[in-house]
Amino acid sequence: METTPLWTDSRVAANIRLNEIKTEVKLESKINQLQSKIDYCEDRINQIVYQLYELTQAEIKIVEGK
Q1: Band of the pLDDT at 1, cuts 50, 70, 90?
Q2: Nearest 5°: phi and psi at 5?
Q3: 16-33 residue pLDDT tens
Q4: Fewer CB within 10 Å, N- or C-terminus of the chain?
Q5: Whether the Cβ atoms of residue 41 and residue 11 lie closer than 8 Å to each other
Q6: pLDDT greater than 70 at residue 8
Q7: Where are the domains of the chain?
Q8: What angle do CA 36, 37, 41 make, to 5 degrees?
Q9: Are 38 and 19 in contact (CB under 8 A)?
């Protein structure tokens, strides 16, 4: 059984926390900043998963709906 690397768990936890903070924040500039961080975290998580499962570029396009 494979275990998930700890750094992946921390990225997921960070992404969840950023989304929680985003719902509490009212300033548009702060919301945009948080959304940029969330987008970056989600992209990195996706890249890690793609590498973990050794997906090809064609498979990644299918997963991403492109």
Answers
A1: very low
A2: -60, 145
A3: 888 888 877 777 788 888
A4: N
A5: yes
A6: no
A7: 7-14+42-66
A8: 120
A9: yes
Query: Which two tokens mark 26?
Result: 């009212």
d(CA 5, CA 59): 23
The Cα 66–Cα 62 span in angstroms is 6
Greatest Cα pair distance, the chain, in angstroms, is: 45
Residue type, 25: V
For residues 59 and 66, what is the distance between their CA atoms, to the nearest angstrom?
Answer: 10
| Closest C-alpha among 6, 2, 37, 5 to residue 20 | 37
Structure tokens, 10: 């921390």
